[in-house]
UniProtKB/TrEMBL annotation:
Originating species: Nitrospira japonica
InterPro entries assigned: Methyltransf_Zn-bd_dom_put, Methyltransf_Zn-bd_dom_put_sf, MeTrfase_14, SAM-dependent_MTases_sf
Residue span(s) of domain Methyltransferase putative zinc binding: 27-88
Domain C-methyltransferase: 267-426
Keywords from the named record: Methyltransferase, Transferase
Protein name: Methyltransferase family protein
Length: 432
């Protein structure tokens, strides 16, 4: 029999072996052998791969969901466990299905058009343009647009709206082809995609290549510091290869010849950044006060120290226990519980917490693409939102917690029968 001290020693030995294997990997950002564990959530299915009814008896592949942080450039990253072609060729996420997101991008299109004096002779190009959700608002203004979207099923929706769309992964090669065809951008957009590319340096180099000499690149992405502060562990999944601070992104942009001259902190997706950049060599625009302010804030938070990343695991484990305790209590009280929304983050939370039909009777989603299918891993059936009115559940678990106000407004009618909402992140809360 092995006594307790020997078990501890064995665990420490295993951790040391893990550290050695981590150190042998190269950082995606700076190329150094400098990676250390940020969070290891275990094995997961691909969170955007929904299961057809005839596939329910088939096995699914599961992959590690183990994120690392670089102790040199502080880029948090997920190894390329799955090739992007296996994730994005057919994709389940359509940006136009969120009303609040459409309001955000409509307002953004208005502001960007005014700030950079865009008009009929300008060119707006978006990398990962999805279903044309953003470009449609520039097109309404008579501004020429081009989308680049790798998911064929999603690109076809944009094309159906009359938005010119190239169905390719955005990279240096794609940028070069467009440039050779005479296409370059006055405004180059990359919204919620920078974190989804495995070769982030190649992607940023492509942005620079396709940018006119006086053009501007605008990128948006969820802010790593908000992920840590808000306990947003469910936003770590296989099609997000990087988790980005301003500190890490600024270094990558400067390395590729782009100069971030302005930055905004946004409330979207639980807290995001919008960075404005121009060619580093072409009469660099003076940086705004916001750049220095955010750089100083991140340094004060400890972004450049490994201690900053060390406590994340405990708060994640606490959230899992608290959510399961809440659901177990409700089920023991014979309450009916369903879930609203099946985003990628929702599938991460369901799989990490082991929530299946023993807790949730079903899920609903506004996307017709997901309706009639089942969730990856947990195999919970997905219906249309109208099912909630028919079955009158006691509780609705909101998985897209970042738009909880929008969802609670949509489902305000559940209060007619005393229904309540459960929001799992950043802490478990019940709303009447």
């Amino acid at each position: 029999m092995i006594n307790a001290p020997e078990i501890v020693l064995e665990e420490e030995k295993h951790m040391n072996e893990q550290d050695e294997s981590v150190d042998s990997a190269l950082c995606r950002g700076c190329g150094e052998r400098s990676l250390h564990t940020f969070i290891d959530l275990g094995l997961f299915p691909l969170c955007q791969t929904y299961i057809e009814r005839h596939q329910l008896d088939n096995m699914e592949p599961f992959y590690p969901l183990h994120a690392y942080v670089c102790n040199r450039c502080f880029l948090v990253q997920l190894p390329e466990y799955v090739a992007p072609q296996n994730i994005f060729t057919e994709y389940a996420y359509f940006s136009s299905h969120s009303d609040s997101w459409l309001q955000h991008v409509r307002a953004s299109a208005d502001a960007l058009t005014k700030r950079f004096n865009l008009g009929s002779t300008s060119q707006v190009i978006e990398a990962a343009s999805n279903d044309g959700y953003f470009l449609q608002y520039f097109m309404e203004k008579g501004i020429p647009v081009i989308g680049v979207e790798p998911a064929v099923n999603v690109a076809q929706v944009a094309i159906g709206k009359g938005i010119p769309t190239v169905s390719k992964f955005f990279c240096v090669e794609t940028a070069r082809r467009l440039r050779d065809e005479g296409k370059q951008a006055d405004l180059m957009l990359a919204v919620n995609v920078l974190d989804h590319v495995p070769d982030i340096n190649d992607f940023v180099s492509g942005l620079k290549l396709l940018l006119k000499p006086n053009g501007v690149v605008v990128v948006e992405f969820p802010h790593l510091c908000k992920l840590i502060e808000g306990n947003q562990f469910d936003t770590i999944y296989h099609d997000r290869f990087s988790y980005l601070s301003f500190t890490a992104v600024e270094e990558i942009f400067l390395r590729q010849g782009l100069f971030p001259f302005d930055v905004e902190e946004l409330p979207t997706h639980g807290g995001s950044l919008r960075i404005y950049a121009c060619h580093r060599s072409a009469g660099v625009k003076p940086p705004t006060e916001q750049v220095a302010r955010l750089r100083a804030k991140e340094e004060a938070w400890g972004v450049k120290t490994m201690d900053y990343y060390a406590s994340f695991r405990k708060q994640v484990e606490d959230t899992k226990r608290n959510l399961l305790e809440c659901l177990v209590r409700l089920k023991r009280e014979r309450q009916t519980i369903v879930g609203y929304g099946v985003p990628a983050k929702g599938n991460v939370l369901l799989n990490y917490c082991g929530i299946r039909t023993d807790f949730l009777d079903y899920l609903v989603d506004r996307s017709p693409y997901k309706q009639g299918k089942h969730t990856p891993g947990t195999r919970i059936p997905i219906h249309s939102p109208e099912t909630i009115r028919d079955s009158r559940p006691n509780y609705v678990l909101i998985l897209p917690w970042n738009i909880k106000e929008e969802i609670m407004d949509q489902l305000a009618y559940i209060r007619e029968w005393g229904g309540k909402f459960v929001v799992p992140v950043p802490t478990v809360q019940v709303y009447e």
